[in-house]
Structure formats: C-alpha cells, structure tokens
Amino acid sequence: MKQQRLIGVTHYSAWSIVRNGLSGNRGWTRAWRDPAPKPAYDVVIVGGGGHGLATAFYLAKEHSLRNIAVIEKGWLGGGNTGRNTTIVRSNYMIPGNTMFYERSMRMWENLSQELNFNVMMSQRGQFHLGHSPAQMDGLRRRGNVMRAHDIDSELMDRAEVMRRLPYLDYSEKARYPIYGAMFQGRAGTARHDAVAWGYARAADRLGVDIIQQCEVTGYLRDGERICGVETTRGPIRAGKVGLAVAGHTSLLAAKAGLRLPIETHALQAFVTEPIKPFIDHVISSGAAHFYISQSDKGGLVLGGDLDGYNSYAQRGGLPEVEHTLASAMALIPSLSRLRLLRHWAGVMDMTMDGSPIIAKTPIEGLYLNGGWCYGGFKATPASGWCFAHTIATDTPHDDNARFTLSRFERGTQIDEKAAGPQPNMQ
Predict the structure, then answer these.
(1) What is the pLDDT along the chain (426 residues), one digit of tens a residue?
(2) What is the CATH number of the domain that holds 102?
(3) What is the DSSP string of 343-393?
(4) How does DSSP assign 216-228, residue by residue?
(5) Residue 333 domain flag
(6) Is 235 part of any domain?
(7) Would you call 39 exposed, middle or buried from its count of C-beta atoms within 10 A (0-12, 13-18, 19+)?
(8) Do both 181 and 211 map to the same domain?
C-alpha cells in the first residue's frame, strides 16, 4: 500500500488526553474539516451516513484514492445511521449474506483501533428466542450453517435460557412461550453516531472532503454516462458517482432515470427512561418481530416491525407503537412500570428479497449501495469496504458478488426470511 497522506488532525491517545488536559484542552484540532466543494473529484459519494463515509474511507485507505468527496444534504449521521437500534450481529444463513455479515462482524471487532475513535462496540451477545418446536428447528438449522462457516453460535434449551434471562415470562399463559434460544456471543451493540464520526474523522485524515448541507438535485451527463452531480452548492464533476442514501435511494436513482425494486418504509425505535443495569444482552424475537437492549445511559432501546405503508417521513404510526410496547410487556412483564422517554423512525430502503444491492448500475459512471432493509447498521464496515472495492476496480468482491441489481431480472433472490416488504412496486 502506498504511503498515506494524513491531514493535521490530533491522534487520540492516553498521552493526548493528558497533554490537552494540562493545557486547558486548548490544543484539540477539529475532528474533520469543513471544505467548500471543489469543481471536480475522482469519486463523489452521495450520502454522509455510515455507509457513505465508510466507502470514502476505504477508497482512500485500501485503494489509495485521494480526490474524493462525500456530499450530504443535511448533517453527518442525521439519517438512518443515527436512527437505528445499534445492534451488530452476523447470524445469517443464506449464501451471499452469511460471509458478508461475518466480514462485517470481524471488522467491527477492530474498528475502534482502525479509526482511532471509540465506536463503543459492546459484544454483550444476542439471544434470538424460539417460541415453538418449529422455530427451534429453524434456529438449529441457522446455527449449524453458522458453525459450518466458523461463526459462533450456541443453541440453548428452555432451562438454560431461564437461567440466563430470568426476567422473561415463562408462565403457562405466556403469549410467547419460551422453548429455547440461539445465542451468538460476539454479537452486541455499537454507538451509532460514534460510527459516523469515527469514519468521518478517519476519512478526513486521508484527504477526503466531507461536504455537508449539499443536496443533490440532478446529474451531469456526457452522453449516456453520468459525469457528476448538480447540487444546491453548484455542479460537481466526478469520474464516478456512488449512491449510499438509504431510504432515499429510489428518489436519487429516479433522477438518473433508473427504476429500482426498492420501496421505502418507516421503521420505529423507542427508548425508555434510564434504569439501573437490567438487560445485559441483546434479546430478539422473530415471532413478535421485537428486539431490546440496554444503552450505556440506562435506557432500554426497543425496536419492532415496519409500519406497513410506504413513507419518507421519519416518524411512525400508533399501531406499531402499540404492537412494539405490547410485545415488550408480553416478553418482559416488569417493563410495564417504565415510562417511554421518546420514539422516532428511520426510513428503510427495502428490496423485494430483503437483501442489499452493492453493484454497478446499468448507467455508466453510477454505482449503487442500497436496499438494506433491517441490516444496514450492522453491515456498515463491510458495506463500505465492498462498495469501495466495487467502485475502485469496477468489479465486485466475492463477498458482495451476489448483491447485484440484475438478480431481480434473473429471479435469483437472496431471500433470508421473506424480509422484503411486498412484491409489487408502488
């Protein structure tokens, strides 16, 4: 790898904390620059969330590209990166997904060191509950696939789950009877905004321009080829343009004349008032489509299912609020005494098979990273790494080779668990 050019940003270390503490904390530099957009770049990445920032970082770090810009219509991490439930896991079993998400998990485990920024990765483990003999058979199959690929997985019976998670409802009248669970010990959570800040800071050190408050309004073309973007801060020419805009993927693609098999839905999340340490793992239920963990501040972070209608609004409806909170109380009755502190929604780009697209598009010069459904945050490192490889080399890496746009024409979907929204386009 070529020697990398580093912009003058403070390297975080114990010594830098001591030195700046003794000097009144006046010596810290900006985490990243705020440059004006240049007229042209080799690569422009549209979207300043985790995936876009990670792509720019790995383009610079792994492929020695330097003339790169990330453009974001709002502020960094203001979209889905800052609106998810922060769960990181790699318990996938369909070819294409299995090793991709395991690559991401392995990258998560060293990400704070790689970025020189604490992303607060907490490998507290995830319990995926089984509520029937059939579900336990499904978890056994999934676990066997994981173990065959050297991914950690442990199947637990009811007694072991009861010992580890004594606060669940194990009564005879439980709405969701507990038969057992699949446990992945390396799974856990990370701090979502820290991931965006860490990638932004690391990319900036390698010379990437991060341009906020710069919305894409159209594309520059040279014949049929896309050669840049029109923005609210003027035209920016580029050799290649990559889209990583989550729930707005179909809108930006439509501006280029590209129709995608993607719908956008709202997915809600919730946080309770803070309490003392109570839930020290991630717990999920496929039957209820519910998941819960406890944040470092003490609040319980809850997530549920889609609202069930297409929307670009970053808020959800009351039916899903009721469903999620009812699921929480059914599984953990003691939560009934807690007060809900706040709730919000992210806009999810949903492909028809529930798996992403990381590929060149049929339009020359335009590359696509989208369709993440429920898997976007946990995929951030591998998504950026594979998208950078695809943009830099014009060929996919083995780990994203199946995530093509053309698979929907061929009928070769990667259907992990029928997680796509609905089979018709709106």
Answers:
(1) 444 555 556 788 888 999 889 889 988 888 999 999 999 999 999 999 999 999 999 999 999 998 999 999 999 988 889 889 999 999 999 999 999 999 999 999 999 999 999 999 999 999 999 999 999 999 999 999 999 999 999 999 999 999 999 999 999 999 999 999 999 999 999 999 999 999 999 999 999 999 999 999 999 999 999 999 999 999 999 999 999 999 999 999 999 999 999 999 999 999 999 999 999 999 999 999 999 999 999 999 999 988 888 888 888 889 999 999 999 999 999 999 999 999 999 898 999 899 999 999 999 999 999 999 988 999 999 999 999 999 999 999 999 999 999 999 999 989 876 555 555 443
(2) 3.50.50.60
(3) EEEEEEEEETTS--EEEE-SSTTEEEEE--TT-TTTTHHHHHHHHHHHHHH
(4) EEEEEEETTEEEE
(5) yes
(6) yes
(7) exposed
(8) no
H/E element holding 271? Answer: strand 262-272
Query: Which ranges in 317-424 belong to alpha helices (H)?
Result: 318-331, 380-393, 407-410
Using an 8 Å Cβ cutoff, are 83 and 226 in contact?
no
CA-nearest of 371, 367, 359 to 400 is 359
Residue 242 forms beta bridges with which residues?
Answer: 45, 367
Neighbours of 21 (CB within 10 A): 10
Domain that holds residue 162: 126-186+264-351
In a domain, 154, yes or no: yes
- Among 308, 332, 351, give the residue marking a domain's end: 351
Could you tell me the pTM of the whole model?
0.94
